[in-house]
Specification:
mainly alpha, Alpha-Beta Plaits
């Protein structure tokens, strides 16, 4: 099975993205998407020699639920800040978030999650991979915001990439 599907999650994602891009589900679309989903991971396998182990069970589903919830809540918070506050009342800050994640994939997932959440953007990772530079639109307490990022996202990613 490992020979046919070297990266099962990548294959599943490719098929889903193909069907979403086609904007309809047809037999031909499923066949072409399945061919791509089987062939592309095979060709890219040499570029993934040290592929990280990921848990796609409860930990991943919990992380996905937290991220989706935070995106919805952050949309309302940012809308409130933009609509009802004057520019001089904004408390935009640069945060230096220390990270304990050790794989590039986990760090990329953390940075992407932060950027997906409205009101925050991750802009840089330190050369040693131990700090993430994040711009936040409205921060009351920098230490509390950093602790929130670590507790909500980083701790869950450590369990997923364990």
């Amino acid at each position: 099975m490992k020979r046919l599907l070297p990266h099962p999650a990548l294959s599943a994602m490719l098929l889903i993205v193909w069907l979403l891009m086609a904007n309809e589900i047809t037999v031909g679309g499923i066949v072409v998407g399945s061919v791509f989903a089987l062939i592309l991971p095979k060709f890219t396998q040499p570029f993934w020699p040290d592929r990280p182990r990921m848990r796609f069970g409860r930990a991943f589903l919990g992380y996905l639920a937290i991220v989706l919830f935070d995106i919805v809540v952050a949309n309302f918070q940012v809308a409130r800040v933009i609509l009802f506050r004057r520019n001089r009342d904004l408390r935009a800050r640069w945060l230096v978030v220390p990270i304990a994640l050790d794989t590039p994939e986990a760090i990329t997932m953390l940075a992407g999650t932060i950027s997906l959440t409205p009101g925050t953007v991750s802009s840089d990772v330190s050369a040693d991979g131990r700090f993430l530079l994040v711009h936040a639109l409205d921060v009351v307490d920098e230490a509390a915001e950093i602790a929130r990022i670590k507790a909500r996202y980083e701790s869950r990613l450590q369990r997923i990439f364990a």
